[in-house]
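Title: Prediction job returns without error message
Component: structure pipeline
Severity: low
Priority: P3
Assignee: unassigned

Description:
Job completed but the reporter wants confirmation the result is attached to the right record. Sequence as submitted:
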Amino acid sequence: MRIKRFFIFALIFGIISCSKKEYSEKDIIEAFVKHGYFDFKEEQVRNNLKKGLINLKKLDKNFEIMNLKGKLVKSPSKKEPREFYYPFVLKKFRNDYLIVKVFDYSIAYESGLRNGILKTINGKIPSQNPCELNKEIDESKDLKLSFNDEKADWSINLKKEISVFPFVWSSIVDDGIAYVNLVSLAKNSSKFFLNNLTNLRKRGIEKIILDLRDLSGGDYLEAAKIAGYFSKNKTTYHIKSSKKEYTRDFDIDENIFSDMNVVVIVNKKTALLGEIIAWTLKENGAIVVGEDTANQLYITKMFKVGKDTAVIISVAKLFPPSLTDINGPIITDYRAVYSNYKKYGLTYVFDCDEAFLKAFEVIRKI
């Protein structure tokens, strides 16, 4: 299979090479020498390039060449349809389902939906099969819920709403245990993360399930701060390169959650910053559940090498606090796969998520 892929790749590059050159060999060599993560000499790059573009892949596995002219651009008239969700999540407790999360500022919240015991859904007792209940909720165009919030019984009619998920959201799922979903590593994500966990700790939380599935790019400093919160010695990950301008170490002032017990959920789409956060937490004692990660710790950058042509090369690599040079995915401590996971979506019943269930089982034993 590998040999077959190699020949297909060679054929593609051969076609590009045989066509009229729309790239500058000098610019390609310069990009490798001046910006490459690896310390290449000009002669080394030139010799590989003489043998064909495919040979640059041997120097940098992330090397790609692309025609900017032919780059697909989405038409403004073909916008991605917005998805709608019911803004709540359930967790099974014995024979009942608890509403454990209602998103703030949602129409449902403003209409009176609160945490409590779910009594009926569409006039029926909820199915004891979590995935059947999850499917019923997902496929319902509207819902009628009755619930008890420990003060009284309430009924409410709901419609799906436009999904606007915060950078971080959390929910208490058991005594002393909370689930935290890191949705985005945008600017100020670390502050939202800090606020979430500070509030959870005030409510007696000592253990967290941190969901990093599908998490990849974002702000490097935000990722460093979040990883550093759990560090035993105020260290976090590093960015290393043979070029000084791409190298970066981070100073961490706060490690206020270093005493928390953490189980991290990852999947095959956990890459780059999501992956290095998981590695950092693993080095600080966290247990990892899910499936092997993407093995994508290189930072790549695009450089123009012609009027309508650019190359992508590795300029730096992420290293955990130990500075171990990682060349493989995170091998999870416990394997569990939930194929229907959506980063910007909801599984309405936690108990339908196999990865969450395994993480919950593990953290209860810590």
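Comment from assignee: result matches the submitted record. The chain has two domains: 84-162, 168-365.
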